[in-house]
Amino acid sequence: MIKKIVITSLFLCCTIVLSAQLTYGTTGLLHAPSAEMQRDKTVMLGGNFMNKEITPPTWYYHTYNYYLNVTFFPWLEVAYTCTLFKAEALGLKPYGYSGFTNQDRYFSVRLRALKEGQFWKYMPAVVLGTSDPFTSSGGGEIGSTNGNGYYSRFYIAATKHFTIGTEEVGIHLSYLYNKRKEYKLNGVAAGISYNPTFAPDLRVIAEYDSKDFALGATYLLFNHLHMQVELQRMKYFTGGLAYKIYLK
């Protein structure tokens, strides 16, 4: 009963105040990638509250992140994301530090290989992407197995939108890979997005990110303020805000 109340409240809130994967600072679904892209020359500044259940095990506590995302061309998106560390988790408490005093930093890159409907009507969009691909620790390593590179992943994603009556539904399929021992992302991820005609800036998302199921929604308010809420495994809350600037 409590779960039903939370989910109902989530969507009621969305229709009033709350388009998408900005949990990690990049376009996509919630955690799973998609082949959608932002408008050319879009800049996004944002941040999230991140439940410890969606982060790598290094974060055994709830944390926050913030990011800068730039779509340089219609086919190229780059993001820089910082996730906060607590001093206690880094062993800095004996030195007089406490709370959030450090951060993990990484880049993400998304390259669109095919545009939706580019060569034929039913062709999906295809994007190649990576997050946190390289760490300079240990002499430098691509796709690290341990240590830094906590959010490392490589993926290929496809997206196709369909109109059913007057409603638009997006079907998203991707394959993810990394070599992390404590935070494996290997296998198929999939999701469905729905944009209702009664609230065109509202987007409802259900996904499987190769590890967990999640349900969430996003809303673009005043064409600039992007709001996102989600329930991982249908019970762990994560949410964030981003501001979009259109340079073109």
Give me the Rg, rounded: 18 Å
Helix/strand order: HEEEEEEEEEEEEEE
Helix proportion: under 10%
Quote the distance from N terminus to C terminus. Answer: 47 Å
- Beta-strand percentage range: over 45%
Strand order of the largest sheet: 1-2-3-4-5-8-9-10-11-12-13-14
The stretches of 5 or more residues where confidence is low (pLDDT under 50) are 1-19
According to DSSP, the number of beta strands is 14
Largest sheet: 12 strands, antiparallel, barrel
What spatial form do the alpha-carbon principal axes imply? Answer: globular
The total count of helices amounts to 1
Question: How would you describe this structure to a colleague?
Answer:
37% of the residues are buried. The protein starts with a helix and ends with a strand. The radius of gyration is 18 Å and the shape is globular. With 248 residues, it is mostly beta strands. The strands form two sheets. Strands 1-2-3-4-5-8-9-10-11-12-13-14 form a twelve-stranded antiparallel beta barrel. Strands 6-7 form a two-stranded antiparallel sheet.
